[in-house]
Amino acid sequence: MEIWSSGLPKDQPPPRARQILALLLLNPGVITPTDRLIDAVWGESPPPNARKALQVHISHLRQLLAVPLRHSPPGYVLSVRPDQVDLHRFRAWTAAARRESDPEQAGILLRRALSLWRGRPLADIGSDRMRERFFAGLEEERLAALEARMDADLRLGRHAELVTELPALLAEHPLRERMRAQLMTALHRSGRRAEALRVFHEARALTVAELGVEPGPELQRLHRELLAEPRPASASAPVSRNHLPRDVPDFTGRAAELTRLCAVGGRDSGVLPVWWLDGPTGVGKTALAVRAAHRLAPRYPDGQLFVELGSLAPEEVLDALLRALRVPGERIPEGLRERAALWRAELSGRRVLVVLDDAAGASQVRPLLAGGADCLVLVTSRHRMSGLEGVRRVALDVLPPVDARELFVRLLGAERVSAEAAAVAEAAQLCGYLPLAIRITGAKLAARPHWPVSRLLGRLRDEQRRLDELSVGDLAVRTGLAVSYLGLDEPSRRAYRLLGTLGYGNLPGWLAAPLLGEPEETAEDVLDQLVDAQLIEVSSAPAEPLRYRMHDLVRLHARERAELEDTAGERREAVRRAVTALLAAVDELAEPLPPAVPRLCHTDLSTQPRPRITGAERWFEQEEPALVAAVSRAAELDLAELAAALAEALVFSFFAVRNRYDGWARTHEAAISALRRTGHRRGEAALECSLGQLHYKRDRYELARTHFRTARALFTEVGDTRGEAVALNGIGMVGRELADHAAALPALRRARDMLATSGDEEGVAHALYGIGYAHRELGEDPEAIDTLTAAAGSYRAAGNERGEALALRGIGLVHRAADRWDEAEEYCRRSHRIVSAVADDLLCCDTTQALAKVWIRQHRPEQAEAALLSAAQTSQALHDTFGLALLHRTLGESRLAQGQIEPALRYLDLALTGWAELRLPVWRARTLRDVGAAHAAAGDQPAAHRAWREAREVFDRLGIRESAEAPHWHRRWACPCVN
């Protein structure tokens, strides 16, 4: 008996205390009566002070143990969980093994249970009588578990190991008939029938001599079966041993595939069952075939053969197979046909399982397929199965994340994996969930128990050295990939390298042609060769446009080969062709947008074919990662102008409309770095403007102003007047949002004049919209309406529907502020119709809010409510902080109009939180004005006055229209102070 606490052994209690503890541990958490404890320790003649002595021993144990030992009439209870006691852990694992249908899992559980045994149970408690009375069955439990484990090994075909292990066990337990039967079965399945019969005769002699009885029915049945079994019809000797490689003890997953393989049978159809297991390098094809073969071995007692095919010719393989059947060398003919005929003859009447590993193709395998329905062939290959009739296919992919984690558990132990769960999950992801890569990583970490998993992550994250890290001993991901690569023809090798050069693993089929610089049909034929070699896979459904996927580790190997075999110019040209094709596709979907920044990067695409794209929204959703990666890759290769053009085109086709801020930022940061490296100052200025627009849309106005100012300086430096005007438009746009109209109006007017001079009608419209917006904010209504009307006309002339809608909305807001409700509704409706037609969800939220606010003013708040709630959901989904805060404020106004003060204040408080986050004092002040109105309606004069006072200070400081309205608030909202 040993006591451990916090991973360290504790001092042992004296013998009688150990006896008490042993009995308490027999039933943890259950009361053991005092009389039973006394009987166990002192037997039939306890001393007079036995109860007192028992209490002393209990007290000693309480001091020693880290768990409660309580007195609970009529005895004592030790408060430990069963899983803290090795006996109960042993019983739990053996019980789980009995319930387990998978012999491999059952064997693992039983080995785990048996590992808890360290000799004779309770050898140190000093009482044979107690052992015999209370713990007599423990040794029998151990032997039963051991026999169950050996049954599992028999089911898995581990006959050779059992033939070695069982004789020693029988020498110690000579009368265990179950062990005798297991040894007979293992010997027989190893081709040693005579030795199996001798084991029976030894058992019979022993039981007759010592017990005076015959062996039990199980042994006698097995003996009769051995005697009755016919000899094979072949003249050759029977197969003498199992040729299968060792089964991998920590094999993980593939339960569905194993079930399919093990359910195979050909007897009903009368034909040879053949399975073809294919998949990429390192996915575990051989491990699965060997696992299935071991499990199926009992069904094929005449032999389990294994041959690594590789580059062997069929006649060489047949020579090896015939010799495995103990056909003498002088009987093996020279020719392929003759050897195949002899192979068929040798298998006739036999039950043999054959594993053909790493097949190069159908022509190599076809001559090896012999035998009838009682045989089985398992083929593994890196190539897809084709050209063999009646063959069933098992296609293997990488492991699911849950199985990848379980493989790490088996390699490193559950405790280590649980302690660094996040690091292990990332390691599995960086290994691409490829079993070979996980096994290599696990082996490295297992050999370095002092390393945290996170230490290896830094190395795996570096794509340049990841394949170097995925190598240990004779295992390497790179080696397996090299074999597949070298088996390709040169056009396929080139395609493989260029796919790696492109830098991302999810490729639309139409892009293969420009990447390879080949006609579409030729490119598709070449990529089909890579699919057959399992280096890429088709990831699309038959009815969908063709799409290919390349595993991350395969991609890294392909890129590595490209850098070794292709010139920098060849790699750069391939990427240029691919990115130009992507730009042409995106350019086709670009459309005018309402912001102040137009497209400034221009690439000649007049000779570029335009792919046909249907369902633009879905297409962008699917292609976004590839498009972002394409910009990054072009930038890496200093194709700076091309990277900038694609980054900007993505803004006008997808990023701006759908608020895809992450992709917008990543593409621009990558492209702008390349522009700076290559000295393209104008392109840098254009993307600085676009970054200003990004931050403007994200309501980060100060950061936006910084980018626009940087852009203006760069445009001025290169003498680009139009670009400078665009940057000025951006500066004015930010100024008006910050209510800094004194700075905004001069910038916008100068931009208008410069853009008019250069003939940029759309740019003039942007400037006019900004000027009209500022006039509206300043309460200069006639000027606002005139300027916004001019903006709407210019937008209409330029074909910019979104811009026209914004200008019409602006006119509606002017009428609404002047209490001209009908005119306000007309303009807001016109604006909303345009935006709805172009299906711009984000802009639709703005026009919905404007129209709903008119309805509130027209005393129709119920009509406004549903529209506002729907728009709020959309704004939240699109991460529009400004729009959401504005909608919350309007919902507050709606509830206030309905006399619902508390709900109104809740919505207004949400709006205040949004304005605080955005640091927009003017919008905060407008919301405080509404908060004051809610408090006034509730009769809370002090709260109303506090809110209005703070709001008026902001309006007076900024000099905007609400400053003139402030004296009328008290009467307008019937504050108690006016009565």
Describe this structure in words.
This protein is 64% helix and 5% strand. The protein is built from 47 helices and 15 strands. Strands 7-8-9-6-10 form a five-stranded parallel beta sheet, with helices on both faces. A three-stranded antiparallel beta sheet has the order 3-5-4. Helix 19 (421-430) packs parallel to helix 21 (453-461), helix 28 (568-589) packs parallel to helix 30 (640-658) and helix 42 (881-897) runs parallel beside helix 44.
Count of helical regions: 47
Strand adjacency order, main sheet: 7-8-9-6-10
The shape, in one word, is flat
Give a count of the beta strands, DSSP E runs of length 2 or more.
15
Structural class: mainly alpha
Outline the low-pLDDT stretches.
231-240
The separation of the N and C termini measures 90 Å
Please summarize the sheet with the most strands: 5 strands, parallel
- Helical content class: 55-70%
Radius of gyration, whole Å? 41 Å
Mean pLDDT: 85
Strand content: 5-15%
Q: Any chance you could write out the topology, listing elements then pairs?
A:
Elements: E1 4-5, E2 8-9, H1 15-26, E3 32-33, H2 34-42, H3 50-64, E4 69-72, E5 75-78, H4 86-99, H5 103-114, H6 128-134, H7 138-155, H8 159-172, H9 177-189, H10 193-211, H11 217-228, H12 255-262, E6 274-278, H13 285-296, E7 304-308, H14 314-324, H15 336-347, E8 353-359, H16 362-365, E9 376-381, E10 392-395, H17 401-412, H18 414-419, H19 421-430, H20 435-446, H21 453-461, H22 466-469, E11 471-472, E12 475-476, H23 477-486, H24 490-502, E13 506-508, H25 512-516, H26 520-532, E14 537-538, E15 547-549, H27 552-565, H28 568-589, H29 616-636, H30 640-658, H31 661-678, H32 681-697, H33 701-718, H34 721-737, H35 741-757, H36 761-777, H37 781-798, H38 801-817, H39 821-838, H40 841-857, H41 861-877, H42 881-897, H43 901-918, H44 921-937, H45 941-958, H46 962-965, H47 969-972
